[in-house]
Amino acid sequence: MTMNGEVDQVKRSVFTDLNPDEAVEDITQIESLCVNCGENGITKMLLTKIPFYKEVVIMSFDCSECGYNNNEIQSAGRVEEKGVRITLSVENAEDLNRQVVKSDYTATKLPILDFEIPSQSQKGEVTTVEGIIDRAVRGLTQDQEIRKSSDPETAEKIKEFIEKLQALKTLTRPFVMILEDISGNTWVENLKAPKPDPNCHTVHFNRSKSEDHALGLYTREEIGEPEGNEESLLPPLGESAEPLDLEAEVLTFPTNCPTCASPTTTNMKLTKIPYFKEVVIMATNCDSCGHRTNEIKSGAGVEPRGVKIEVTVSSREDFSRDLLKSETCSVLIPELELEAGPFVVGGKFTTVEGLLTDLKTGLERNVLTRDTLQAEVSEALTRLAKRLDKVLATEEAVTLVLDDPAGNSYIQSLTAPDPDPRLKITHYERNYDQNEDLGLNDMKTKDYE
């Protein structure tokens, strides 16, 4: 292989986007044992990206001897910092046809039938809401013939329950499906993208210690890390060492690129933003694929009140404002009917123009064109991207709104310390749900000692 060929191979992303107009070429085939008949079948693996979600590994097995087949999906990314709970109201045929990505750790609940599929009882998969119901029916039907002879009473009760599950698909009455995943790697398709989905409510929650252990996550104290570990990010200072000035230091630690998974490094620095607070900025630049990203976290914890920041964007001067968006902050542009939740665009330190450009790039990258429904979504995203182009060309004025319940977001005032007439900042009391998302409701703050 030539040197140029080697470079091209390194720079090509391991996880490729699916293109419906092109044949998939990056499928890996492995001969493997069939668990049904004991003969050899074929397992196919595809590393790909799911739009509006993340990188995944899709695996499909097929046995030509007995006809047995199955498929499963595994997340190729890291475990998320928080778990996710998705509450979906199923009201029509489109809701039944929503795409769903489930991990091994997804627990599925149907409150209307008091029915739950426990976490780790099924392998992860790419399916639909109807597919989840069908898989539950198949599982309950599997041993019915044996039950009829050994325990007819139980078999009859299961038969009645299967009929109730099947009846859900007729939609004679709406029902609610709850998907709860401690790994945070479950996703339900938004039929209204890029607008908020009125039938789907997503909540991110903090895991308990037992849930962290179920995922294989342990603290250094729990695994008994030996003293003097040279890999520690901030090793203890000796008695004669000078005090460490974090604001003057840039810390570097190894990581993997979120796009191509190649080894790279992340730089981290503590800095203070004028008229705001201290923040931690982390930046990654991958030499293999060229991916660049920055992430920002508050260095001062959650504020007593949330903050809502509104700024009028109509000129090049407005684009130059420094902007800090925390990972808990939602972005809204009322004129475009655009709302991006806190996890759509992560925490970052950029400018107003940089944030709008990121939103536009994300919309263009995640256009879907699989069927009639997806074509409608694709058309809506394309129209929105064109309007964002007009905003970036100062042909259309909009109001950019940052809504952060944690109070850790900021937009630069161009007249500080005097009031800025184009910038409105409102502090508000958080409601119960917002405190729940931030993990504050269960936090013990009295008599802590």
Walk me through this protein's architecture:
This protein is of the alpha+beta class and about 450 residues long. The protein has ten helices and 25 strands. β15 (about 265-270) and β16 form a beta hairpin. α8 (about 350-365) packs antiparallel against α9 (about 370-390). The longest helix has 21 residues, at about 370-390. It is globular, with a radius of gyration of 25 Å. Mean pLDDT is about 80; it is low at about 1-10, about 225-240 and about 365-375. It comes from Nezara viridula. Belongs to the ZPR1 family. InterPro entries: Znf_ZPR1, ZPR1, ZPR1_A/B_dom, ZPR1_jr_dom, ZPR1_Znf1/2. GO terms for molecular function: zinc ion binding.
